[in-house]
Specification:
heterodimer, A: 458 residues, alpha/beta, five-stranded mixed β-sheet, four-stranded mixed β-sheet, 21 helices, 11 strands, globular, B: 309 residues, mainly alpha, two-stranded antiparallel sheet, 73% helix
Chain lengths: 458, 309
């Protein structure tokens, strides 16, 4: 290279370096400090955190297959925080639930070592993935002070959901959401008619009848598709004293409590629900509610993020929350949690664990809590920002339901989706008008199929 | 190998050794095999070997979190003797195919006859009619979901403004398969039109002139002349559309995922569900094999009747 060219190159480098330095100083901060003034507690925590070697795995890159639920869609916007904290790059993919499950299982069946983190629901995916040996136990990381900072505090998590994320006594995932089934209702419509939120299932039916005014407003909506219907049906099933299987893994969906639950559920939504419910997943049911076309929606508390998103919802200021009502036997709303897990086939378990530390740490839990995904960490609930930034009715309903119930949405089997779908097909028939002896026959048929599935997969 | 008299004028680079000359000679002799060889190898690698692996898998039992276990013909026994879901899916597939193919044939024939005549703007109309065929099935499916929406869709809006009852297009078990067949018809009738137009254009003119002279009316001409002469072309159209309808997956998956319940679950969808949602991979491989054989059998039948024409 000529002398002149060399000089130009050096000058270019210096100029480029100055520009980059200036941009880094003025651009959006990539530090660990959260937006807004840090509290003294956060400053101490930050100091302790800095003593822990966050940059141990700097320079590596990991891959995370996540759901496009309210947690993932929100936290992905903060991924720069993680990348500058640890120096690790993350490829974070968001997919709808069904496609996510297919992709995860396809990649892990093909023994793909390129996948480091997956998002799982312990009640739904847990049994199958654990049995397949796909989930890396997190206990060695949790117990090693070199891998987990002292201020991360595993004891901060609510015990019930922490335990539910374990299999064979080993921690499979860190739970990030306290999801409970509850009623989200339009308090403006209730006030107009002078109604109070229902406390029993019979009251629920009466209130839905009073508010049902098709085609402008429908009384109540929930998920009704074969794939997702059972999720919201579970609370009805349990509150009537029924269940999917008993302790001996025998199908109990054809027993009287389950049949009563299905009759009630069917007549409630046939009479006071919108048309086309048997094709609705939560995307459609929450959209209908957000457009103001339904008075009540019975579904997860975590959808608060959807209802209060001004760019998509018209009902953000008009809603309030109530607990799932009492049934004839008990008040047992379904609960749910999910969280990131490390693939046992991954070659980068260390960096993957650091992602879990960050995404389930106190700051991230508070941030997602404020956004609408109820946290599992008690510190998030007790933080002053949380007390100001969240709807007190929502807080009240979530905490009371967590204390009341510990039943998950799903049947306790290995091939959860297969059994759940079979029950879902039954529910679609109920929505279509199958009742009485015909329902009994269909339920018996469903139980035969479910017993066959259990036999083949356990 | 004989060389031309210009051998002495050849540049040094072309002066290949005797070995190379022998290989070149062999290649020229067996050109019929040499030229397609790369494509053939690709086909074997990407289609042939996976097919063989599928046949192997269909004889195993493999639930995702378990071991692969040899099961012989157990999967096939279950498919044909025990699996009610399969039988129902097969019935739905045949129903869907019959609906879609007959609608496309009748409509396609009518449009082809229309476009075969001479009139102003015929070229423009032909181009417009072909448009649905070039849309992506998934995109078309998603738009039709909006059209079919129970409360927010334009179809029900039109029905209710004419004081007719709204139809739950995609959530009523009785209506969903015809509704899906309608989407398939919308998208692929142009395909049938194109094939039939080509057939019509290739028909000889003399029989039609004689018929006109003999005083045959339009219906008689169509029934006794056009249809029989066009039969081979019609069978080609039926063949292509039947194969596609039997295998239909993307539109149904995008629009209803097989729902409500199982009402629109055709064989391909059932196969996908068993394989990629429930992960019974051995059983899914057996189902795929059965579906392939079914499509092959249908094609053979149609081709046989075409030859008989």
């Amino acid at each position: 290279m000529s002398d002149r060219a060399r000089r130009v190159t050096r000058r270019h480098l210096l100029r480029a370096g100055a520009v980059v330095g200036l941009a880094a100083a003025c651009g959006p901060g990539g530090t660990t400090a959260p937006a807004g003034a840090p509290t003294p507690a956060a400053a101490t925590a930050a100091a302790t955190a800095r003593a822990f070697d966050w940059k141990r795995y700097a320079g590596q890159s990991i891959r995370f297959l996540d759901w496009n639920g309210t947690w993932g869609s929100f936290l992905i916007k903060k991924k720069d925080e993680f990348e500058s904290l640890t120096g690790t790059k993350i490829e974070w993919e968001l997919l709808p639930q069904e496609q996510h499950r297919q992709k995860v299982q396809t990649e892990l069946t093909a023994r793909n070592r390129d996948l480091d983190l997956i998002f799982i629901a312990p009640h739904v995916d847990g049994p199958k993935y654990w049995k397949a040996g796909w989930l890396e136990p997190l206990d060695p990381f949790l117990q090693d002070p070199g891998q987990t900072p002292s201020d991360w505090e595993a004891k901060d998590f609510a015990e019930g959901l922490w335990k539910t994320s374990q299999f064979d006594g080993k921690q499979a995932t860190i739970p990030i959401a306290s999801e409970v089934q509850c009623i989200t209702y339009r308090k403006d419509l209730f006030e107009q008619k002078g109604l109070k939120p229902p406390t029993t299932l019979d009251e629920l039916r009466k209130v839905a009848a009073a508010l049902h005014d098709p085609p402008k407003v429908f009384g109540v909506v929930s998920r009704g598709s074969a794939v997702q219907g059972p999720v919201t049906f579970s609370s009805f099933l349990y509150s009537f004293g029924g269940d999917y299987t008993d302790d001996k893994r025998a199908c109990t969906i054809d027993q009287k409590p389950a049949l009563d639950a299905m009759e009630f559920w069917g007549s409630l939504y046939r009479d006071y629900g919108p048309p086309g419910m048997s094709a609705m997943n939560f995307a459609q049911s929450t959209a209908l509610f957000s457009q103001g076309r339904v008075a009540m929606i019975i579904d997860a508390n975590g959808f608060r993020a959807i209802y209060t998103d001004r760019s998509k919802s018209q009902v953000g200021d008009l809603i309030s929350y109530a607990m799932f009502p009492k049934g004839p036997v008990s008040q047992t709303p379904g609960i749910f949690t999910a969280g990131p897990a490390i693939s046992a086939l991954s070659a980068k378990k260390g960096p993957a664990w650091y992602f879990i530390l960050w995404s389930t740490g106190k700051q991230s839990q508070l941030a997602t809590h404020l956004n609408g995904t109820a946290a599992v960490r008690r510190s998030a609930w007790q933080a002053p920002e949380a007390k100001q930034g969240t709807d007190p009715a929502w807080v009240d309903v979530t905490l009371k339901t967590m204390d009341l119930s510990s039943r998950g949405y799903s049947p306790r089997v290995v091939s959860v989706l297969e059994v759940r779908n079979r029950v879902g097909e039954l529910l679609v028939k109920v929505l279509g008008g199958t009742t009485g002896p015909a329902l009994k026959d269909e339920a018996a048929k469903a139980c035969r199929d479910i017993s066959d599935i259990i036999k083949r997969t356990e | 190998m004989a060389r031309t008299g210009r051998a002495s004028a050849r540049p040094a680079a072309l002066d290949v050794g005797p070995w190379r000359r022998r290989v070149a000679a062999m290649a020229e002799c067996h050109a019929a095999w040499v030229f397609p060889a790369p494509a053939l190898l690709a086909l074997i690698a990407l289609a042939g070997l996976p097919m063989l692996f599928n046949v192997y898998l269909s004889l195993q039992e493999w639930f995702v979190s378990g071991q692969i276990r040899f099961a012989g013909l157990e999967n096939f026994r279950r498919i044909f003797l025990e699996d009610e879901a399969f039988r129902e899916a097969a019935a739905r597939t045949v129903y869907f195919t019959a609906l879609a193919v007959s609608a496309q044939l009748v409509l396609g024939m009518a449009i082809a006859l229309l476009l075969h005549r001479e009139f102003r703007g015929r070229r423009v109309l032909r181009a417009v009619f072909v448009l649905p065929m070039v849309t992506t099935p998934v995109a078309a499916g998603m738009v039709w979901v909006l059209l079919y929406h129970s409360t927010l869709g334009p179809l029900n809006y039109v029905l209710t403004s004419l004081a007719l009852p709204a139809v739950e297009w995609l959530s009523d078990e009785r209506v969903v398969l015809p509704a899906l067949a309608l989407v398939d018809t919308w998208q692929y009738t142009p395909f049938v039109v194109v094939i039939l137009l080509a057939g019509l254009a290739s028909l000889p003119g003399e029989p039609f002139e004689s018929a006109r002279i003999d005083g045959a009316n339009w219906v008689q001409t169509f029934w006794y002349l056009t249809l029989p002469l066009l039969r081979p072309t019609i069978m080609v159209a039926v063949l292509f559309r039947s194969i596609d309808s039997l295998k239909n997956f993307d539109v149904i998956y995008v629009m209803t995922q097989g729902g409500p319940g199982r009402a629109s679950e055709t064989m391909n969808l059932y196969n996908f569900r068993v394989g990629f949602e429930y992960f019974h991979l051995g059983y899914a491989a057996a189902l795929a094999l059965v579906l392939t054989l079914l499509v092959l059998a249908t094609s053979a039948l149609i081709l046989r009747s075409r030859r008989a024409a």
